[in-house]
Structures are given as structure tokens and as C-alpha cells.
Amino acid sequence: MSGGNVQVRMKRHPQGMVSPGDFDIVEAALPTLAEGEALVRSRYLSLDPYMRPRMDPLRSYVEPLKLGELMPGAGVGEVVESREPALPRGAIVAGPLGWQTHGVVTRANARVLDPAMGPPSAALGVLGMTGVTAHYGLLKLADPKPGETVVVTAASGAVGSVAGQIAKIKGCRVIGIAGGADKCRYVVDELGFDACVDHRAPDFEQQLAQATPDYVDVLFENVGGPVFDAVLQRIADHARIALCGNISQYNTKEPYGVKGMRQLLMHRVAIHAFVIADHRDYWPTALADLSVWVREGRIRFKEDISVGLRSAPDAFIRMLTGRNFGKQLVQVE
Amino acid sequence: MSGGNVQVRMKRHPQGMVSPGDFDIVEAALPTLAEGEALVRSRYLSLDPYMRPRMDPLRSYVEPLKLGELMPGAGVGEVVESREPALPRGAIVAGPLGWQTHGVVTRANARVLDPAMGPPSAALGVLGMTGVTAHYGLLKLADPKPGETVVVTAASGAVGSVAGQIAKIKGCRVIGIAGGADKCRYVVDELGFDACVDHRAPDFEQQLAQATPDYVDVLFENVGGPVFDAVLQRIADHARIALCGNISQYNTKEPYGVKGMRQLLMHRVAIHAFVIADHRDYWPTALADLSVWVREGRIRFKEDISVGLRSAPDAFIRMLTGRNFGKQLVQVE
Q: What is the C-alpha separation between A160 and A194, in angstroms, rounded?
């Protein structure tokens, strides 16, 4: 395989939960470069929930993946060959490498990483799409005011952990929702949220009510399903919801029916669904803040690293079922 | 009863669909006026869907009605006694008269009607809360652009009919959804919508798909339930939803579960739920437009008038079940 490329492709559309058999791992020739392109040897691949809906053959914001197509995703790695002066050999870059050991990028879709900003893997997390997503959804769409109550679902996850810490920086009371006691402890003890409620607890709704005596002004929503309905029962007048993800529903055949429409109306709630790919202009704004906050230790992050490209399908399934803990990465080599 | 007051009060909280037994009709003494108040003999009472959720003992944007409390509602009538110079005897005023033959208003909550603006009953419809609601939801929140596809549910109803006609004035392609062939014909032939789909038709979803080949950029939503889900299946990228009502769910014990969260996310939809009572400052803006459009014949309206205050409960139930046709009023005397 030395000198070759290894790729993970979608073999079939998942039926409900993703399974390892939905992927093919194949060896392919290294691509030849056109003018303006660079070949990158991947070090880290980012696994993100948004990849799951892309595997369904349904109308969406991008073309759904076709059978046999390379699984998409951001990665970081080293330029090993280049026909683009802005991406010189030896540079460490982040770009849409996909689930493969070697990917081709261009000046338009890749950025050269500044080692002073942090470890390269952070460019796939807090100092990359993950962090920008949290910043945009929370500050641009939901715009919480100091003293307001902010709820973040999937609070220990890659995006949620950053969203909640930004809300703390902005002076909000921040309540996380996460699956399991360990994650909740981490959210409070390590990330500094005011409280965290375990959505697997039998008295989840009551715990959530106790944690939100003044109701919920802002919801940063990553999960959907019954957890979303539970928060709607606690929603405050004129609340804003940044609808970022719906991970509880990505692998269900029959979607959960959200019962809280009445709450939306009675409390005059605004929902802003978004996909960060629409907002490329926003990256510099967000990264400027995030890099400062990370450097000052005001935003902390955790990575969950799976070793070897061939582990990507299993790591992806772990993430989709909430068994990861922190930003999910694959160390490619 | 001459000289007395007749009132319709809420006897009990409805269990599911409102029934006549949920009301008490009682005779009461005429109120004595304080300084700054005027006594109005009601001519027309407005019946509006928002009254239904107020009858439930649940957290809402105003205190729920208490047992034995007067049913609330706007009305128009003549000032028969006054201790407020701005509301002189003989003036025709609109204000929160409630479901009764005589109500007390103040300068702050009533307005003197200008006969040149139209018939007094219009102040309860297109030139009142109904019209202002349509204007605000459509233009301020959803902001449709010329050529965009706008869907209006409850299209023959008081608010929907105005919202759709405003969208036509703004150069949109406007699709109504209504219950029954008669209403759909009216929406197209009389109100000038481009098409109208009967949500009771067995092939409703297919008809809706055919009527929205370019998908749905704006939804003015009054209905909720399965109709809402059907529109979400046709939602366009970056669509805006003005969430004005949820009438299909006001009388159900178990709320319908909305399955289209995926569509919200994949198409980056914004939902703006609103209650026009929050936006009193907006009335002059809206009424300035609406009065011109009505005078020019660009907005048409239909009234469904039930005779006698005692008919109000039945008329209310008719409206909640979609058996009315046009803005529901009660002619009080």
C-alpha cells in the first residue's frame, strides 16, 4: 500500500443506524495533481454528525452521497506534493480531505495552519468548523444576554461544549444536557457550566425544571427528539433556538414527532436552523474570538481519538450513539 | 333585561373540543364608570382562534382564563355613557369588550372608528387585529420577495385571506391551503390566489407538491398538525415561517407530533412565532397599508355573522371546526 491511497466509501445507504457494512474500504491509486492543487497526507480526520444525513438519499442542502462515493469530511495533514504555491510542500493544512489517507485540496478550500494557534487537530474542532458553528449559532442567531438562561444539548459534545463555554463568557446561566453522569460531571467540573442534566435519568424532566427556574431564554439544539420537547416545556417568552443538529433522529426510520408547537406559539419563540457551510464569511470573526479564548484557557476542549483510518466507521457509529466523549477524530496513519 | 348586561363566561376548562356546556350565559348589572372610562353597547363581537388556548389552564403569554371569568374578545359598539372626553357618547369604538352586550373601555385600550375607513365590523377584521396580524407576520417576519412561493394555511380564514392577498400585492406566487372545495374556489376566484389545495383531499400531499414546483419560500402558518408537516416536506432552502396559529391542535388532548424537524435543519428554515398583542406599535403602519388596499379593492374580505350574543358559543365551535366561512363575527343585539 506504500505510495497508494486508502479510502472509505459509502457502500450502501444506511437503514436506520449506520453499520460497518455500509462502508467499503478500498485501495486506490494516488491522484495526479492539476495546476493549483496540492496532495495532502492526512493526519487527522474529523468525524461529525452532519455526515449521517448526507448518507440518506433525500433532498438536502447538498447532493446526497452516491453509492460508492468517498465519505466526505475535513482533515488536517501535510502537503506532500504541490502545484499550488500557496500550499507548499511541508505545510500543515486543513481542508476537505475526506475519509482517505491522501486527499487533494486547492487554495480555495484549504487553509495553511499557523502552529502558534494550537495543535493541528484543534483546526478540526474548537479552532475549526466545530468552534465556528458554536460561535455562529449562539452569538449570531440566538444572541443571549447576560443573565439569561441558556440550555445546550449534547453539552459534552464537540459543538455543545464550545457553545456553552461561550455562553458562560457572555455572562449567561448555562445548563447542559448530556447522556450519562460522567459527561454531566465533565460539563460542570471541567467546562464550568452552572448545571448539567442527564437526559437518561428517569426524572429528567423534573431535573430540567429544577435547573431552569426562570425558564429557558436560549436553546442551542443539537439533539432533537424527546429532549427537544422537554426543553420546549420550559421555554421562556421570546426565546431563541439555534437549531444546529438533530442527532437523536439521524438513525431513526420513523422520525420523532415534536409535540411542543403550542409552546412555540404561546411563548413567541424564534427557531433559526442553520448549517455553517452557508456562512464561510463568518469564519475569521469566530476564529479571532475562539483563538483568544482558547489561549486564555477560557475555552477548554477534549478530543476522542480513534487510531487508523480503518477505524473510522466504528468511531463514527460510536459518535452517533453518544459513546464518544469529546470531539471525535481519527488519527489516520 | 333591558338596561342590564348579558355575559358569556367560561364555566369550565374545555376537555378537548369546546362544547356549549363550557360556557355560562348570565345576566349582570351594568357597571358603574370610573373617571376615564366609557360604557359601550356592543354591536359586533369578534371570535378568534386565539381565544381557545386561553381557555386551557396552561402557561401562556397571558394568564389563562379562570373559571367564571368573562370570555375575552374585541368588539365594536356605540358609547352610551362616558366619563372620558376622548370617547364621547355616540362614538363608534373598537375595543376589548368581551363576550357581553355592554363593555367598559378606556382611551388606552379603545379607538374611535372613522366611518370613512369602512363599515364598523371591518375594524374587527381586515382593518383590525386580523389585518394587522396578517401584515406583521407576512411582511415583518417572513418578508417574501417578488416571485417567491408563499403558502398560506387556513387560506379562506380571517387572517389567512388577508396574508395571501398581501403576498399577491407583493408579487409572490401564492398557494392557499383550505378545507373543502368551496373554500378553495373562493380563495382562487375571489381572492386571486394562484392556486388552493384542499387539505381534506385524499391526494393532498401530491396536489401540494404539484402546486409548489419551486418549493415553498414562505409559509404563513395558522393550522399546524399534519398540514404543517406536509408543507415542511416542500420547504425551500432558507424558507421563513410566520407561525401565527395552530388551530388544528387547539382542541386535541394529545398534540400532534411534528415530524419535519429534519426539513427545518436541512433547509435552514427560520420559524418566527408571534402574537400580535406584543406589537401594538405596529398597528398604524399596518392599518395605513390595509386601508388603502381595501379602498382600492386589492384586499377583499368576507364576514360570517352569527346573530345574537347567545349564539357566540356555537359560532365559536363552528369556527374552531372550520365550518365558518370568512371572518367570524357575532352581531350582538
A: 14
Burial of A274 (0-12, 13-18, 19+ CB in 10 A): buried
Residues B39-52: pLDDT tens digits? 999 999 999 999 99
Neighbours of B185 (CB within 10 A): 14
Q: Check: CB of residue B124 under 8 Å from CB of residue B162.
A: no
Model pTM score: 0.95
Q: Count each helix (H run) and each strand (E run) in chain B, helices first.
A: 9, 15
How many C-beta atoms lie closer than 10 Å to residue B20's C-beta? Answer: 11
> A192: which DSSP letter?
-
Separation CA A312–CA A304 (nearest Å) = 12
- Crossing angle of the two packed helices B204-211 and B225-232, in degrees rounded to 10: 40
Pair type for strands B303-307 and B327-331:
parallel
| Cα gap B240→B235, rounded to integer Å | 9
- Tell if the CB–CB gap between A60 and B266 is shorter than 8 Å: yes
Among B249, B262, B143, CA closest to A273: B262
Question: Under DSSP, is residue A274 helix (H, G, I), strand (E, B) or coil?
Answer: coil
Q: Is the CB of B265 less than 8 angstroms away from the CB of A273?
A: yes
Q: How many other CB atoms are found less than 10 A from the CB of residue A263? A: 22
The parts of chain A modelled with pLDDT lower than 50 are 1-2
β-pair partners for A258: B258
Is the Cβ pair A268, B246 closer than 8 Å?
Answer: no
Q: Phi first, then psi: what are they for A118, rounded to 5°?
A: 145, 180
Q: Domain ranges in chain B? A: 5-124+302-331, 129-277
Write out pLDDT tens, residues B213-238. Answer: 999 999 999 999 999 999 999 999 99
B264/A58 Cβ within 8 A: no
Distance between CA atoms of A162 and A290, rounded to whole angstroms? 9
B285 neighbors B131 (Cβ within 8 angstroms): no
**Domains B5-124+302-331 and B129-277 fall in the same CATH topology:** no
Residues in B closer than 8 angstroms to A53, CB to CB, are 262, 265-266
pLDDT digits (tens, 9 = 90+) for B93-132: 999 999 999 999 999 999 999 988 889 999 999 999 999 9
* Ranges in chain B, pLDDT < 50: 1-2
Say if domain B129-277 classifies as CATH 3.40.50.2000: no
**Nearest by Cα to A124 from A76, A90, A165, A70:** A76
> What CA–CA distance (Å, rounded) separates B311 from B23?
11
Distance from CA of B112 to the nearest CA of A (A): 30
Contact yes or no for B280/B170 (Cβ under 8 A): no
Task: Please give the C-alpha separations between residue B211 and each of A34, B147, B215, in angstroms, as whole numbers.
Answer: 45, 14, 9
Report the SS3 class of residue A241.
strand
Helices (H), A170-212: 181-185, 204-211
β-pair partners for A100: A7
Q: Please check whether residue B271 touches A, CB under 8 A.
A: yes
Nearest by Cα to A291 from A161, A165, A116, A94: A116
User: 3.40.50.970, 3.90.180.10, 3.20.20.70, 3.40.50.300: which CATH number matches B5-124+302-331?
Assistant: 3.90.180.10
DSSP state of A36: T
Beta bridge partners of A111: A94
